[in-house]
Design brief:
CATH topology: Helix Hairpins
Order of helices and strands: HHHEHHEH
Number of strands: 2
Strand content: under 5%
Distance between the termini: 45 Å
Shape: elongated
CATH class: Mainly Alpha
CATH architecture: Orthogonal Bundle
Number of helices: 6
Helix content: over 70%
Structural class: mainly alpha
Strand order of the largest sheet: 1-2
Length: 146
């Protein structure tokens, strides 16, 4: 599983590197719409990669969460604090929501990171999103407006 995430991570990093290199070279072959579309694809890949990573590492993964519910969590979700919902198992959508808002708002919204690895992963996701959104999309809009 680690090789899978490492491979996906290198692919997303290479996509960001390619987009930034294209911006620096100011290639006339790439128009603003292509750059904007590429930026959206990189951002969406980033969110999907990190949502899968969050889902797999929190308390040992989905299987461990079912079999060993007392394991220390990496994140605390709101439904875990409500006594009526405490036994409800988290789904992939919960982690997709976490990754989406970390990629958009650059911070946690409703789920709080508890472990150092959770905090570091969220920082890395935010950094990739920041580069993609601010640098790539801003340049694409600049090209379209010209």
């Amino acid at each position: 599983m680690l090789f899978f995430f490492a491979g996906l991570g290198f692919a997303v990093a290479d996509e960001v590197r390619y987009l930034v290199a294209t911006l620096v070279r100011r290639s006339s072959r790439v128009d603003g719409l292509q750059l904007l579309t590429s930026g959206v694809v990189v951002w969406a890949s980033n969110v999907l990669l990190f949502s899968l990573a969050y889902w797999r590492i929190d308390r040992g993964g989905p299987e461990a969460r079912l079999n060993q519910p007392d394991t220390e969590p990496d994140w605390v979700f709101p439904q875990q604090e409500n006594a009526a919902l405490r036994d409800k198992n988290l789904t992939f959508v919960d982690y997709l929501f976490l990754a989406y808002w970390t990629g958009i708002a650059f911070s946690p919204t409703d789920a709080l990171p508890l472990s150092s690895r959770a905090k570091l992963l969220m920082m890395l996701e935010s950094m990739i999103s920041l580069v993609t959104i601010i640098v790539v999309v801003a340049r694409a809009i600049s090209i379209i407006g010209s």
